[in-house]
């Protein structure tokens, strides 16, 4: 089944028998049987006919609406998860300060371990680059994290560790056209091409996880490390921390260092910052989707795609809520 990305402004999604048709200016951009569609992501000013909406809902196909800068504006979903018992369990763990603290530590620990693994693997493939000092610092943060007694302390460790990682990330950019544009991680708005791609990628995997946990019955707005904030899918943000480097950062470095996207494929706006042009974003989606569908070896020598791993890790989180056991994040190796 396919994920459909639509970036053509003023395109229209229509129903044609049991097929989805995407048109613009009387030209057919895509026509696909509805049973082959898993989800749809729309970027910019895209229209959907009433018949198409009904067909999408009947076939349980989620549609996500983004603005042209990659910010999620809303979702069309058939139904929400009905597992109220899972939600009650989630609320109980959130209200219990000790349990919430422990879960937050599991999440931050997994994120830092992924930093360490990603940088270590890069060093092995690029012996001319030395991250030994930074790796030692990140390992020390894992020890420091366990001493924290409040969520704010966990967030402090996470913030400093992330800063150390992004200082290394700058040195992993080998395309000279992009070497000087990335100074630090900036999100709102992203002010350079690297931050633009990182923000878009993180938004996409957050939405991917959001759809999964929604369907499983979690409350996506009750997180543990990421606290409650109106409209923010905090649990999805918690659970994608373990996947940031292995999916998004990997894709961004691949696209830049292999010169798949050029510096001229970005445009700037004083209010909204930097974004990819239409042809650039198509290339990004192609490589991003390929990465999500990449299969890797997991437990018992079984294979699973990253998309499948999202589901498996969300399932694993149930055990932590139910039994209080350690949440074992996916670690990129």
Automatic annotation (TrEMBL):
Pfam families xref list: Cas_Cas1
Gene: cas1
Keyword Secreted attached: no
One BP annotation, GO: defense response to virus
Job description of the protein: CRISPR (clustered regularly interspaced short palindromic repeat), is an adaptive immune system that provides protection against mobile genetic elements (viruses, transposable elements and conjugative plasmids). CRISPR clusters contain spacers, sequences complementary to antecedent mobile elements, and target invading nucleic acids. CRISPR clusters are transcribed and processed into CRISPR RNA (crRNA). Acts as a dsDNA endonuclease. Involved in the integration of spacer DNA into the CRISPR cassette.
Keywords: Antiviral defense, DNA-binding, Endonuclease, Hydrolase, Magnesium, Manganese, Metal-binding, Nuclease
Name of the top EC class for this enzyme: hydrolase
Quaternary structure and interacting proteins, as annotated: Homodimer, forms a heterotetramer with a Cas2 homodimer.
Binding site for Mn(2+): 158, 226, 241
Claim: Manganese is one of the keywords in the record: yes
EC number: 3.1.-.-
Entries under NCBIfam families matching the protein: cas1
Family to which this protein belongs: Belongs to the CRISPR-associated endonuclease Cas1 family.
GO molecular function: DNA binding; endonuclease activity; hydrolase activity; metal ion binding
The protein's required cofactors: Mg(2+); Mn(2+)
Protein's name in the database: CRISPR-associated endonuclease Cas1
